[in-house]
Amino acid sequence: MEIDKVPQDEGITAGITREIQYAVDENGKYVKTFSKGWEPKNIVNELAWDDIHDNMNDANEKILAGKASPIMFFMAKNQMNVALLAEYVEIPKWRVKRHLKPRGFKKLKQEQLANYAKVLGITVDELLNYKPKK
Amino acid sequence: MDIPCDHKKTNYKHMKLDFEHIPAGHCENGVISSLLKYHGLNLSEAMIFGIGSGYFFAYMPFVKVNGIPLASFRPVPGMIFARAAKRLGIKMKKQTFRGQPKRAMDELDRVLEKKLPVGVQAGVFHLSYFPPAYRFHFNAHNMTVYGKEGDTYFISDPVMEYPTTLTYDELKKVRFAKGPLSPNGKMYYPIEIPKEIDLKSAIHKGIKQTADWMLTIPVPLFGVKGIRYLSRRMRNWPKKLGPKKAAAYLAQMVRMLEEIGTGGAGFRFIYAAFLQEVAEIMQDQRYFELSKEMTKIGDKWRTFSSLAAKTCKGRSSDPDGYNTVANLMLEIADDEEKFFIELKKLIN
User: Fold this and answer.
1) Which of A11, A30, B9, B293 pairs as cysteine with A42 (C-beta 3.0–4.6 A)?
2) Are the beta carbons of A51 and B66 separated by less than 8 Å?
3) ipTM of this model?
4) For B260-281, what is each residue's pLDDT tens digit?
5) Residue closest to B157 by CA, chosen among B298, B22, B335
6) Correct CATH for A51-128 of 2.40.50.100, 3.40.50.150, 1.10.260.40, 3.40.47.10
7) Could A22 and B272 be called an inter-chain contact, meaning their C-beta atoms sit closer than 8 Å?
8) B315-338: per-residue pLDDT in tens?
9) What is d(CA B238, CA B322) in angstroms, rounded to the nearest whole number?
């Protein structure tokens, strides 16, 4: 790629950083240059986030239907699956699965709730009082 | 530099090494390149990448990341770095601290105090300064820690434009990210750099392995065979997976090619830059000519990304979009095959 063709499409890194792009300068020599971004990258990044948002919406539907606890939503928001969440809270997977159900969630002690809240980046109140919008 | 000591809480109050932040295309090579530079050995990121045989292709349908088969344009994390160090005769001290975050941080402080910048592996999900759009559970990121003031660590992250900082707790958290490829507090720094380096021999070894891995691995998932294999599979995605999942699969390919840390076109441009340096070191113009071919290959991968992104965006189940990029991949596989056959001739 020639240096004057390095795309500068603002997007996912706007205002935070620019990425290094290797390109050929006017003398045919490779140089490192900065790129503000590239539209195809913005598109595929957005797609990855769409999937995360889909998971969050699915969790919300389950919570509204009384089939899942609020942990399900925050797990999706933190891009986690049961295995990863279990690793972070240091609880066996089968127990995390129980806590994802409303019945298991109700039985959680304050200490366990605090553990979940910390890992999920929220307060215990936020976890307990979470209600999806209809 | 004068290091005032406070032995009570932390070992020192202020310590910032004279470390040059060099933005790079790829974190692993960038960290190694700037660590070596600090110790007086000037090798570019591209040179480390070439010597460490960073160029690769692998498609592993049975390894899934977030439910999507893994396509990779580089070998597994840590490998480029290990190979480059070995071929250059550099000794690195590597440590991990499974389940011992406090010890991992203490050891980091201890090494910093010896005025040595330290490479650390980190997860990016909790990396506060990272662009939010890139904060996924990816654990094989690398950065250099080059000093400390009170609770704050000075960080040189090669994929960031400027040097940055993390607090003690933030750094501890990212060094102990969980999930696949978890860093377990991994840290590393050079302890022995030979006075005389046989660069030509290291370059030869690097090139030879890259060519061999691209051309001769007898499993159809790797090298140019892997590209052809994926091309075949890709044609069936819309029919087999439905529009949504097919788009997710294709998008993942583009992310591996272009997302933060490849220098563009799945490391192909970094390799072209490496070949230009080789041309100078070897005093051999033929490497320069092959660099131009590599640039063309990189440009084709960029076209692939551009077309693939368009197909993903529409989430169309029309097989035409998938066939177009699959055809392009076949063309690229032929180009890469021809390229490495030519390159191999130069080193034999």
Assistant:
1) A11
2) yes
3) 0.92
4) 778 778 899 999 999 999 999 9
5) B22
6) 1.10.260.40
7) yes
8) 766 778 999 999 999 999 999 999
9) 8
